[in-house]
Structures are given as structure tokens and as C-alpha cells.
């Protein structure tokens, strides 16, 4: 609570209010402290008055080990979060994190903590429910559960409150509420999926690729709703040229499936497994070999999160022996590491990316798009309403069977490997409207940087988007747009800044300079400073290698 009431009361006064002897803390004292904080308009200043004690624990935490139901009720009624966890790990870690002397942390902990529990034990992540369970207090347990406490929340050791329950009322109540909570959570998630389908979520982050998004979302929907083979994991193969959204779509799937993407998303760069001996890095070395104790890169991560989204990037570069291990993984949903231990991962999602057949897919996609645009023009000419859209462009089955599958079979050389893939997902080249979106996103990124770093407002005209979209290279995808913006826009900005042509707080406008017919030069970008009266002045940016510079 220190620093929370700092303007009108001294820190020691606040600590006195909250540091009553453990056996003396009563609801009247808690009510008085709550009222003091409210009187100081702490809520209006944006301070969370339920946030921290001196050593960084939630303000409800001191009540947990004391377990007075009346005190817990006061704080819950005042808006305390029943799922807030104890931030105390040990004296030395807390001392370092908070910048407080370790002796002061120790004294604070002993003053605040109940004598019924060891103040030096590690309670990091424990919630009110954990403490009420440790004290075998069914009344407080029920009160917290009714206030929204999560019975499935784990502490720093990965244990739920029921792990610490004795046989009796507390264990019975927790078991009952765990089932209720799971049902309620499932209903909420189902309702959320109905209101905000996965397709919409993915489209917020992925430009274009309607067909790929729909294919992936449909497969995941089957899995989420129980319409899948639970004996086998879900396996995708993403095909298409570089920089077209394959990796980003895999990341967004992981973000949807797991809130903690750092743990729930595993990326394996398969170019690191091109040699036969590198199989050991994948699953770990067998006993007696170097690196045996370290374990394998994949097996270690899957052991930590068996239902992760695993990305095998550029799988076409992997050694055939690695593909054999992956076949076992896809077929049986489990993997045996170098130590002989088996990791069950049937609930995982495996996504492979490859540039194999990217040329054929890109050319076929362009041809389909041209045909769709021609159909659209004819319909517009006939005043028809059902104009062809980009998401209607689909790879034909004949093309998949006669062109793509023979290429994949020739590369991977194993029908059974291809047979274990649930969905082969095709990523097509961007159409013009999608390129405009990419250019707009890239310019917005640099406009934000210009504002944050240099207090410069950057604007642009619509023709700028068309000009920069012309730098698209089908083989490099969105990366070619990024490089085009850097070459034609960011280079100019950097040179103008270096030559002190950009006043602080100014507004810049990008526009297209019309081509000079006499010189037959291509259109170029012009950078202008816009005045307060809307007048503009073109910047005379000297080339860096100019003799006059």
C-alpha cells in the first residue's frame, strides 16, 4: 500500500493501519482503510487502491492467512480481485525485485503474515482460495467461490487449491465447483466463438488469404467442438511462396489456442536438421552420447506443453530421418525421446510450412485471379450484382492432384507421410487491393515511429499507395513491400532529418510527382512540409553522395 496514499498520509501511517498484529486485524479496521483510500480519490487518479502492499503483495493477501470471513467479505464487497496471487517468492528475490533491503522484507513479511503459516515458505501465486484451503475453512472457501474465485487457478508450483485440501467439506466443495467452473467456462468460450468466429479473429491480423484462413478455421472448429479423431493430432501443411503469411497465420492460431503464446507456440527451424546426425538435436541423444542429459529441442518443449501449436518451418529442408520421426509423431500422437520416455501430444496442432511448388501455386493463383477479374468486369458491364470477389478464388482439385501432389510426392518420397496431413493449405499471391492494405499498414507503422521518436506527423495521398504497391515481387511477398517502403520513403525521411530539413513538430505529406514526358522518367515520391495554413513546401533533399553535400 505504500505510495498509494502518499500525497496526504505518511507511509508509516498506512503501514500502521494494515500491520496490526495478526490476531487483531478486524473488518472495522479494513473498512476504515478502504474509506481512507476512497476519500483521497485514489480511484479517480487511476491508482488501483487494491493493488500492492509494501513488499508487493495484493492488499487482500494479508487477510488470506488470517482467514477472517468478515474481513474477506469487506474486501470482496469493496472490489478486491479474488484471483489475485501472492507475489512473494522468497526474501532475496523480493528484495531484488522491489529494491528493498532483505532484512526489511523479512520483517515486513513476518509482520503481515499469519503465525499459523510459515512466513518464509514460498507462497508465490497462491490466491485467497489456496490460503482458505490450507486453513481448512469451508465457509471462506465457499464465499470466495461465490465471488468468482477460479478453483482451477494454479500457484507458482502449478497446484490448484484442491491439491492442498484435506478430505472433508473443503475438498467436496472444491471438487463440486471445479466441475461447475469447467462447464461455465466451456459455455462462455462457446458463446465467445459464436459471437466472434475464428475467421474474423484471424482476418484482423492476416492480409488476404481468405481460402487459407477458412480452411484452418474449419479444421480447428471441428477440433474445438469434438468432431475429430482424438487418437491423432491435427496436422497442416502450408504451401506458398515466401513472405505471404504462412508463419504469421501459425502464430495467430497459437495465440487463439493459448493465451500464453511463449509457452503455447513452438517453432522449429527445420533448416537446422538437414544432416543425419542432427536428428539427436530433435529428440535428444541416446544414453552414453554427448548431450544426453540436455534432451531434445522438440521433446523438451512438448513435455512442458503437450497441447502446443508446433510450427515446423521449411520442413522441405529436413533430413529424411527427421521426417520419419515426424511421421511417428503425426501417426501415433506421441514421441519417444533419447532417454526412452514417451511424450503424449495427441492434443497438439502441428503446422508445417514449405516453399515446394510455390512457383506453380503462384502462377496458378494469378491465372485464377485474372479469370475472376474478367468475370467481374463482364458482370459489371451487364449490371449484375454477384460480382466475383477475391475470396472466391479457389485452387481446383484437378490442379492439386495433377500438379501439386506429384511434386510433393517426388520431394517427400513417402505416401504415408503425406497421408497423415489433415489439410494442405494453399497461400496465393496478393491481389491489388490486398497490396494496398499492406502498403497502408507499413506506412502507418513508420508514421507511428515518426510521431513517437521525432514528433513528426506523416500523411500520404492515395496515389502513393498505388505507386508503392508496384514494388511487389511475387517471390518475396509482403517483404518486398516492406523493402519498397524503406527504399522509397524511409530513406528520404532519414536523409531529410540528417540534413535538418524537418522542423520538430512538423507535418509531412507524401505525394506522387507526375512523370516528366520529355524525359520519360517514372513517377517518383515527393516529400512536402505542410504549414498551419495548409500551404505546402517541397523538401529539397540532396543525394548523400552529391559533391555539394
From TrEMBL:
InterPro entries: AAA+_ATPase, Ankyrin_rpt, Ankyrin_rpt-contain_sf, ATPase_AAA_core, Clp_ATPase_C, ClpA/B, ClpA_ClpB, P-loop_NTPase. Pfam families: AAA_2 (PF07724), Ank (PF00023), ClpB_D2-small (PF10431). ANK repeats lie at residues 124-156. Residues 430-521 form the Clp ATPase C-terminal domain. GO terms for molecular function: ATP binding; ATP hydrolysis activity. GO terms for cellular component: mitochondrion. GO terms for biological process: cellular response to heat. Keywords: ANK repeat, ATP-binding, Nucleotide-binding. PROSITE patterns: ANK_REP_REGION (PS50297), ANK_REPEAT (PS50088). Residues 232-391 form the AAA+ ATPase domain. Residues 513-549 are annotated as: Disordered. This is Caseinolytic peptidase B protein-like protein.
